[in-house]
Amino acid sequence: MGHRAGAWSVAVVFAWGLASGATYASGTPTSVVTTERGPVRGIEAEGVRVFRGIRYAQPPVGELRWRAPQPADAWREIKEATSFGAACSQPARAANDRRPDGLGAAPESSSEDCLFLNVWTPRTTGTAPVMVWLHGGAHRFGAASLPFYDGTQLAKQGVVLVSVNYRLGLFGYFAHPALSAAADEAGGNYGLMDQIAALRWVRRNIAAFGGDPDNVTVFGESAGGASTLYLLTNPAARGLFAKAIVESGGGWQRTLNRSQKEQEGVAAVRSVGLTAAVTAEQLRKLTAEQLNEAVKVAPLLNFGPFVDGTLVTASPAEMFARGQAHDVPLIIGWNSHEASLLDASGAPPAAILKMFEPDQLQQLRAIYSESHSDDALAQAIFGDSSFGAPARWIAARMESGAPAWLYHFDYTLEARRGAIGANHAAEIPYVFGTLDRIPALRAFVSKRDEAMARMISACWVAFAKQGRPVCDGAPSWPAYRAETDELLKFAVATQVVPQFRKNALDYHTDLHMKSAGEFR
What we know:
This protein is an alpha/beta fold. α13 packs across α17. It has helices spanning 152-156, 169-172, 177-180, 190-205, 223-232, 258-270, 280-284, 288-294, 316-321, 340-345, 350-353, 358-367, 374-397, 428-432, 439-442, 447-466, 502-516; strands spanning 28-29, 33-34, 39-41, 43-45, 48-55, 79-80, 87-88, 110-111, 116-121, 128-134, 160-164, 211-221, 243-247, 330-335, 404-409, 486-490, 495-498.
């Protein structure tokens, strides 16, 4: 059996979130901000104004389930924007289902009525740069309200931070013949539609919060990073952001077409007792619990946006290969132990090795000669093929237009030195400056760890402000060029590294280009 594009090596990826309540901070009431739909009042704490749970679209329930997001109803009375809105409906996770580093279970509760966003701003006047965050979670889990996504430290550096809930699982990415036959059906990528609707809300409203609608950076990690790639290559998102950051977002993820997604949808509803002859009305009467159970028919690591023929007409990789991605500055990169995902998803490392022909495996063993066990070899292959190689490939595709900067995150807490590397999602609390928000890590954070957080957070903020990542305390970070093949490695000794893992990344790139068949 030869190497197969679209399997483990091109998985859509995710980050778990820490269980949280509706709010986790107090403060004094802010002045009222008037949005296009009505006035809101948040709170001020630590010199930052926070507006939580602002509805950016109508509840996608009842007849609005599996439809494009609709404008929120207007209101006249001041809404107290002090508590987060509900997380989007998702499968429940056990309280003890957490990663050792504390980036653990999904939110405590969720609802279909979830299209809310949150704003952190240093002031409500002026034109500060805006950063719009898309959370990870395999397109099935997570929420903008999780504690390590708190925007306070970013706002203190002079940006407006917006975090967004978007529909997940079968609420967010679903196709079925009964829906496709409906004249008013919008396509199936509802989660992506939500993200675009949120960006449009930002475009229209963020000036009232002190933000510059012409200087928006969209960024996300894992499924949020993958979503950012879809936004970078989607005509409907053109003009809604000026820059982008992709953290562990893959790039060669398997993209189903509408027919395949409809087959998946039929299997999903069959699993909860409905036949293929079901009507759209019957589908909309399924309970949230039934749909969260039915999502299990889809492979965990292959879920998310698909080619629906209307909103999404090609995979991100195809669009980058054609030169049809939006020409905006980009930061893109990955972490040193992305294979932590294999444990989180229950995937045996041996499954990675089975994806290759014997001669390919022999070549890989020679390339990864430092990996002395099959498990170590599989983990190294997974990280490079799913994340490293596509990130570098995308950075190279940007070379003729707006610049791209490539990074590799390989920093672990001082107290955890000797660990295998930086897990999937490990960079998030450094970017947000929220290491103290993770109980499992809080007691172990050192001054050096805090300095790393300040450095990488400053990189992201500088990029949002001026379109170039200037990292206080780090060497000058050059834009990516295939000729020099340089990236910035965030580590104990942060440095620019030329030709990082070149043999391995070249091998996976060549192999994928030969096997994909869909683009060159």
